[in-house]
Each structure stands twice: as structure tokens, then as C-alpha cells.
## 1
Amino acid sequence: MNNVCVYCEIEEGKIQDVSYELLTKGRSLANQLNVKLEALIIGDSLAGMGKEVSKYGVDIVYLADDKRLYPFTTLPHTAIAVGLFKETQPQIVLMGATSIGRDLGPRISSSLTSGLTADCTDLQIGEYEDKKAGKKYENLLYQIRPAFGGNIVATIVNPDNRPQMATVREGVMKKEILTESHKAEVVNIDVNKYLNDADFAVKIIERQIEQSKVNLKGSSIIIAGGYGVGSKENFNLLYDLAHAIGAEVGASRAAVDAGFADKERQIGQTGITVRPKLYIACGISGQIQHIAGMQESAMVISINNDPNAPINKLADYVIQGNLENIIPKMIKYYRKNIIAPCPLRGGPRG
Amino acid sequence: MYKIIVLVKQVPDTRNVGKDAMKADGTVNRAALPAIFNPEDLNALELALEVKDKYPDTHITLLTMGPVRAAEILREGLYRGADAGVLLTDKAFAGSDTLATSYALSRAVRKIGEFDLIFAGRQAIDGDTAQVGPQVADKLGIPQITYAEDVISLKDKTVQIKRRLERGFEVVEGQLPLLITAHSTAPDCRPRNAKRLMKYKRATTLSERHNVSDDYLSANQKPYLSITEWCAKDVDSDLAQLGLGGSPTKVRQVENIVFQAKESKVLTTDDGDIEWLMQELITNHTIG
Ligand SMILES: Cc1cc2nc3c(=O)[nH]c(=O)nc-3n(C[C@H](O)[C@H](O)[C@H](O)COP(=O)(O)OP(=O)(O)OC[C@H]3O[C@@H](n4cnc5c(N)ncnc54)[C@H](O)[C@@H]3O)c2cc1C
Ligand SMILES: Nc1ncnc2c1ncn2[C@@H]1O[C@H](COP(=O)(O)O)[C@@H](O)[C@H]1O
């Protein structure tokens, strides 16, 4: 009772990274609260999944195994999660801020009248005082996320309603096996207890999942372009530099919204979180939502014509000026000083 | 014919915010951020209008909850082809989180009456939460289809939708009534229609009519010029579920983040500076 539960997502028979990352975070939250860590896995042919997740420190695995439950559809997964949570009363429920988690999470939170905070960049345990009501709360989940407006981070709490729910994007938390030998109790859920025919009102007719063309997470050098790049054509400068030095190209949301780069290149709170060896920010001002996705880069170079751009504070090197002049020179002097060619990477279409 | 409700929200334009969007103290300069029609709500409206293209006696009602000023986007929607607008506005809604918002919207939907389809945007750019659509569907007890980029077919009570996923797509089929959220890859909304602009530019809500002195435009004479305005009581809602009090999530604190400034080395665009930097990066094996 009152444990921490992670909803684990499955794609093509594999539990997704974001779920492992949340289990790792969930383990540390459960330790602080001195409760158990649970995993809820809903899908088809789940044999062996219990063992897969227990390594991450899971104490109880709930398996809802039925051929109608994969691929994901909203209502059956909601019915099972809501039914189970009513019985097990978790105090915290975590899920990925993915197309599945963002479809399912709000539905569960509405059914259980519990709060849900999207796209958290950090989760902690702490106390809260409601001065107006004169009430003090201990051990609440701090759901921390950048807020719109300046470099502002908001801490959200759900004092009274349970479970406390949060979604987190892939890559934000670190994934870490606790011990290979950790054993979890596996509980098989009788799905028919929770499901009825009306839950299958929406049927999948066709489904195509593509491999991502962009590999930002796996790249040790990232050249990110912002609104200051100015146009889709100018982004070619970034691809050229990426080709030359063997890097991948990322973008800020303003650049994505303006159509300069594809959405899958977006870095930040609502994009991808990266931790490269070198991050070159070109024409990016450095708003908190962007910083949230790149602040753990080992080295940062900022190319900006505004000497006061906030991102400069994070930078090891600041090149002041117009990127149109600077990037071609970087390519030129890189070529001049290196002898061996680099593997080709980072073209606009992968 | 179909009865459609489109959920639309007025939001501060967080896209392409330039340097002037932030004040020196690090807070938002709201004046520099225009209030706009939430972009994906325009995609939602377009999907509804395409249904109307096919089935011309379809009726589209726009519903928004917000301040009096939000009537601007209802007019904008009327210019583009919607049939009616409803503004839900009340002090009691202030401070609502997504759950309290969806509750209020679901009450208003009930009051509007029968419907076949509700369209919403996937998410509003001020918070990017993407919660209100699914939560409204839950409160109404209907299925949802999220991230729609195309209504492939709609016949009788059956709809087929192409959904955009983060990697790939799905085609799904559902039975009406249901709620659909529109993805930004859905068709762009058609522009304003000049005739409709002339017709609806004086369409106002009750509060707006209170605010203008020359009241020569009587909504009674031209009922289409009246945008419906409801308060919490009008939609028969339980006050305990509204506003700050009805919101499970509370903001504990808001912190200004001051980044630990690094010792940064500042370079110019001079060839010498750039060559030095590239050599430095190669020498310390950061690149190359
Ligand atoms: C809920 C929410 C979620 C968000 N999520 C994200 C996210 O995941 N990722 C993200 O990036 N943003 C996100 N944002 C948006 C974020 O707040 C900023 O609006 C965005 O990061 C700004 O992008 P930018 O730095 O490219 O643009 P701007 O702020 O417009 O900065 C452009 C910069 O380019 C410089 N510049 C202009 N011309 C040149 C030139 N010729 N040469 C060199 N420099 C030049 C300018 O000095 C300026 O510093 C989110 C916002 C909200 C509200
Ligand atoms: N106040 C509101 N009034 C009407 N519709 C809303 C409101 N808030 C959110 N919505 C709808 O719900 C969608 C998702 O919003 P959000 O959960 O805030 O990201 C939006 O695109 C709108 O279609």
C-alpha cells in the first residue's frame, strides 16, 4: 500500500528506456519514503518481463497479459490502471512523457481525480505548508519543471489527492541497474476483472513504427541551432560543420516552430535531453526550457551576436558575432589543422 | 449532419519570442507577447471544417474558457467557418489546473447538448501539457483519439483517423461520439473568409457589449452577432471542483534560476581567434 508505481511502456516486445529511467528514479524515491517500488506492465506475451524490470530494484511487478492489450489503446490500459490503483493505492505514479504516457496519464488522473504534472525535469521528496489552511504535509512529491517566464523553475505538489502523478521525458533521468539478483514478486492481474467490451471501442487498423533518423542521444558532439540561425537554408551551415567534425545537429524549439529544423531534433524540456562531450549552441538565447535539455554537456561553445545572451553564462567559450561568418571559418580552420578525415554524419536527412 | 464542438484556447505566443520578451529582471514581458489562437487548436478547427465541407449541414460550436478577451479567438473561428461560439468566463475559474479546466469545459459541453465529435488541440503552447483533451473525454465518458493528423473517413457513426506518433503513425477506427485531439501535422487552418469577416466582426459577448458605450448593435436584432457567454452557475458546475480550490496540483514555489556562470573565454570573429579555438579543440581531443 502507498507505494511508488511506474507504468512501463512496451514497444515491439521491449520495455522502453524511459520506463527503466523512471524505475531507477522510482527506486530512490521509494527508499526515501521507505516504501516499495512497483511496476505495472500492460501488454501481450509478458513472460520474462518481471525479471527484466526487477534488476532495477522493483519489489512488486503487476503483469496484465492479454493479446488485446498490445499495441496500446487508451481505454483498456486506463481501465486496468485505474482498477488496480484503486486497490493498491499507490502514493506516486510515474510515466513517460511519450505519446503513450501523454495519452494515458491524463485519463487516469481524471478518473482518480488526482493531479498530474507534465514534463518534469526533476522529482524530489519534501514537505509543504499550506499557510491558508494551516496545514503541514510531509513527504510530498516535488514535481519540478521549468515554467514559462524567464529562467523560472516551478515546484508543483499535490497535497491531498492521490496518487501524485508526473510524466518525465526520455533521457531526463538516468537509467541504472540496481543489482542483477534483485527479485521481485510477480502478480498476474486478472484483466477480465477490469475490462469490458466498450473499452475496445477504438481499434487499430494499421500501424507503422519507423526507426528514428536522428541520433542525438548517442552523439558525443552536438551542434544546435536556434532562431538566430534565421532560415532553413542557413541551417545547412550547421550540417556542413557537423559533416566536417562528425557531429549531429540539434535545434531549439523556436527553430523547430519556425520550420528551420525537424521536431525530432528539438532539445530541451519538451524535446530531447542530451549530455554530449561538446555542445555548440548557434543563435540560441538559452531560455530555461532549452537549458533543461543540455545543461549537463561537458563543454559548451556559444556562438551569438548578443554578448548578454543567457546561454553565454553556461559556455566555456563564447564566440561573439554572426554565425554566418563564424561557422564557415570553423570548418576552414578545422580542415586546415586536421589530417585524417572524419566519418560522414549529420546530414539533414540523416 | 454532425454536431461538432471545438475546444479552443487563447495563449501567449511563446514561439519565436525574441530578446524583448523578457524583462531585465528575468520575468516575462507580457506586453511583448501577443495573445494568439493556440496553433494546434487551429488544426483542430480545420479538421472540423473539413467535415463540414463534406457534410454541409454540420454545425460547429467553438468553446473556450478564459477571460473576456478570449472572445477574440471565437470571432477568429467564426471568420474561418465555425457556426457559433461559447465563452465560459468566471472569476471562479481562476487558478484552475488542467483537471479543474476539464471539469468546467465538460460541464459546458453538457450544456451545449448533444454532440457527435469534439475536437481539441493536442496541447496548448503555454504549458505543453496535452492533458485537457483526454481529461474532458474522461469526464464525458467517451473514448479519445489523440494526435490526429487526418480524418481518413467519416460515415454514419464510424470515423477513421490517422494518428501521428513520435516515431511513425497509426490508423485507428472508432465509433461516435468521441473526442479527437489534433496534431500540428494536421492540415493548416484555412484563412479568414472575407464575407464572414464582414458578417461577424461585430459579434460580441455580453461583457463586451457592457464595455462599449455606443450600444447601437442590438444582439436581439441580429442573433448571430451574439457570442454566448456563460458563468460557472450557468453550466451547473460544482464550485468545489473549480479554480484553485478544485485543482489537485498546487504551485509550492517558483524559483529564479541563476546559473553558476562558468569562466568563459570570449572570442571574436577574427580568423586568429577561430583558428586558435579549433586547434585547441583538436589538441585536447574534444574533436577530431
Ligand atoms: C512549455 C514550454 C516548453 C518549451 N520547451 C522547449 C524545449 O524543449 N526546447 C527549447 O529549445 N525551447 C523550449 N521552449 C521555448 C523556450 O522558452 C524559448 O522560447 C526557446 O528556447 C528560444 O529559442 P531560441 O533561443 O532559438 O530563440 P531566441 O530566444 O529568439 O534566441 C535567438 C538568439 O539568436 C541570437 N542571434 C540572432 N541572430 C544571430 C546571428 N546572426 N548570429 C548569432 N546569433 C544570432 C540572438 O542574439 C538570440 O540570443 C518551451 C517553452 C514553453 C512555454
Ligand atoms: N481554457 C480552455 N478553453 C478551451 N479549450 C481548452 C482550454 N485549455 C485547454 N483547452 C483545449 O485542450 C487542449 C490541450 O491543452 P493543454 O492540456 O493545456 O495542453 C488545447 O489545445 C485546447 O483544445
## 2
Amino acid sequence: MCVAVPGEVIKIHDSKAEVRIRKVLLEADCALMESISVGDRVLVHAGFIIEKISRGESDQMMEDLENYSNITSAWEDDS
Amino acid sequence: MNGYSIKGFIPQGRALDPESPLATPFRGKPRSMNPCLPCSHSGMNKFTPLVRLGIDALRTAISRESEKPITLMEVCGSHTMAISRFGIRSLLPETIRLISGPGCPVCVTEITYIDYAIALSRQHETIVLSYGDLVRVPGTHSNLERERAGGADVRIVYSPMQALETARENPDKEVVFCGIGFETTTPGSAVLIKSAAEQNIGNLSVLGAHKTMKPAMKALLESGTTIDGYICPGHVSVITGMSMYRELCNEYPISCTVTGFETEEILLGILSLVRSIQYGGDPVQNAYPRVVREEGNPKARSLVAEVFEPSDALWRGLGSIKGSGLTVRREYEAFDAYERFGLEVEEGVEPKGCRCGEVLRGVCTPAECPLFGNRCVPGDPVGACMVSSEGSCAAWYNYS
């Protein structure tokens, strides 16, 4: 429940951002951040952006997420 | 504070950089490594060669440097799951004992709270909104999932802000959001309450059971549980920053390292704790610096402080812990479900034989509970720790 996932801000309207997380688009609230812009890489938890991260960090986390997903799928295939 | 970085542990086909944190503080005798059990049984061979190199380097360093027996506790449900899922225990020498603490927010939510949420769901014209895992947590006689099957309007939400939409769409109904969780999740409930107040939403309230991590970490140290170091939660620390660990380490002889959730990040955190405990130095380390800042997220903390005030709270397994809860401030009491409904609910009764409380204190392992794996399984959980995928018992059941 405490996991936050990395994504990229695609669009902002009022205090909401559209965030792309892998291939999924999610709406996230910007109320916990001082400023958010289109193109920012962010961490999203329970519908809120909780932190901005650098592009490099975000790419690394995306890769981790991809690895994690691949490993989990491989395990599931094996079982 | 030293910023531990994962980069030095991904050797990319060459010897370890002598400048990397791995290379410097080793002062112990080299020792033989344990056999790489996970390679043969838990799927470590699914990692890419590059990641494996980093993991092997970290394993080697930990095995060489760990000399005295130590106990490390993780206090984050996602760490609990990752440690079990990736077979981290089998990567460590016998000197390092990993135990799970009260890090899963669903697991520590007290049974009377569930009974209260159930009582609310039985109220006429009431919609109860909850995060997914919570609906399966057993109350004394039922759970929210069963209530929903019996006709109650219980809905699962991803974000607290969905409660605002639900309240707007259902002006003739009472909408109650079950707000549980630690520092990562509490700011969302604070924004929900503040937004409801600003927008004059009159049919929305929060049934709060938010908790803060530091008082629980202190209570565990004072309870006599042997803990040499805490593996500190990555995303809670995004909000809190590092100062709460400094305060803890100033008061108690303990080391704290914040880590991420990947295998190599968890191993890096463990290495940092081994070094800090054995050799001294700064007891507070950040092994997740790519995400966790020293100052955390001040805006989120300020919103929480505006809406909530510290209070004592009941934790499943730990009892009442002073100052570990958050109660809605008087200015916002119209949005506090306890104030709004004032229901009388009897004190909940824990299931007979369930040892979740001891599991949450690190006193026993899930396998030592007589119900584990027979009467209590993920598909039909008796105790809260078997409900959430982040619970110690569920992680133990699925991956050990």
C-alpha cells in the first residue's frame, strides 16, 4: 500500500495531472507538490503526486518496474 | 549523512570501482560465501546478467563484512513482500536475521476499527469507500467484503479523491472514506478533508486510522524486541525525510537505513546497516537517494498538520502507542466520521489462536502460528497479516 510508481506528466488541468505510467494513463492530484509541469517525471501514490524525480531516476525505476514485471511473469509461467 | 548509491554496485563487466562504498570500510576477515540458494530455487536466475553482477557483489560484501550476529527489522509492507519474493534471506549469511515489523498498514489496523466500518456500512443510505485490501480484513464477526455481498454499498477506491466525486454524485447519501495508512497515504486524506471543506461538501466524512511510524519504531525498541537496525521504508521517507530517523538514533542505540524495493537496493541497505552497527559512524543512511530527499516533502507534511493532530492510537499486536495516531482537528470535525455518526461499537475480539500480534512485533515468524497454512490462508484469511499481499504471513505463505 505504500508503493509509489514513477510516471511522466502528460497533461495538466486545474490541480490534476494526467500521468503516463508505463502504458497506462492515470489521473493524479498535484496538491502535495509546489509546482508540476508537463514533462516532469513524478512518483504517484494513491492518486497523488508525492515527489518529482529526475528523468534518469525515472527511467531507472521504469526499468526496475519492467524487470519486476518480467520476473513475476516468468515465475508465474514456471508455476 | 553518506548517500549510498546503487551505481557502484552494478560493475558492468569490470572489477568494482575502488571508490565505491563497497571497497572502503571492509575490515573483517574474508569468509566463504553461503551457496547461492536462490539461483537454484527462487528465480534469481530470472534477473538480467547486469543486475546479477550487482547483486553478487553486494552479497559478497555482506558475507565478508558481517561478523557479529545482528537482527534487522523492516517496517514497510512492500519491503516485507520484496524480501520474501526475491529470497533475500537466503542471500544473507547466518549472522544476519531479518524480521518483519508493523509495516503493513492494513495489518496493523485494529479490529474494532473494522467493526466500526462494518457498522457504518449497515447504516441506511451510506456508502463506504475503502482501499482494496481493507475490505477483506476480518472484523469480529464479518468483514466489509461480506457486508457488500450482503447488500451494503461498499466500494473500493484507488484514490481518496474518488470520495469527493462519489459524495457529489450521491447528495442524498452519506459517503464515508476509510482513511488508513502511514505517512505516504495520510496527505491524501488531508487533501480530501480540506477540499470537502472548501467545496462545502456536506455528506462526506473520513473514518480515520492513520498512523505515524516513528512512535511505533520507538515502542518496539522499548518493548524489549531485539533490533540492531531498521530497514526504513522508502516511500514513507519520501514524505518524512530523514530527520525522524536522526531523532530516533539520537535516543536509542539503533541504526536506520532507508532503502528502495529492488533486490540490490535492499542488499545495499543491509550492507550499510552491517557497517554502521559493526563499525559505528553515522547511524542514519539513505540508500535510496534517487527518490528520498533529506527534507522529504514539507508541503505534504504541512497539509497533514493542518488537518490532523497527533493522538494515541491502537495498533493490532502492539496495543496503544502514545502519539502514534492522527485525529481530525476540531476545525474539520464535521468531516470526522467518529464525530458525525457517534456509533457505539463494542471492543473487537481477535480470532482465537491467531498470532498476528506477535508476528507484527517480530516475536515469532508466521510459520510459528498454529493457524498458518491450515485454517489461515490467503484465500480465507483469519488474521490481518494474511489478508494483504504486503502482510508478513501472506508473503511467507506465497514465497517461503
